[in-house]
# Entry
Amino acid sequence: MNGNTKTIKIEERTFFIKKMNAKSSLKLAKTILAKSLPAFSIFLEERKTKQVETIKENELFLAIQNCLDTLEDKDLDKVIDTSLQHCSEILPAGTAAVLNADGSYGVVGVDTDVLLTLRLVVEVLVFNYEGFFDVSLWRSKFSPVVDMLQQNVKM
# Structure
């Protein structure tokens, strides 16, 4: 494998994740950041005013829910579809795209499994954007969120 691909196991299934091209990646980042960052900013400000050192798991889920609430359905569809189009399941006969370009599912069961879909979307987003936040000038804006998730939340 090179740095543009990654293999992950979810339960008994193996998936192949690939990097997005730069144009798709930037468009998706714009959608996510422009719509959801204000909700996380409000969450962080409330945390500062309460002078809370650590957060509870349910508080994090509420912040994520607020971020998702700020995304319109078409934006959420774009995030999910773009993410799922960048992963495939490794099957005995070869790889099968999780979501085809025409919007049809190429893998059995993903369309009805909410947790699997969420996990795949998160894995694709993390894989595609992990370096973006580390080397970007935007890091200073997002570091409180990243640091909080890495240090204070035990899931």
Summary: Helices lie at 22-49, 57-70, 73-84, 114-135, 139-151.
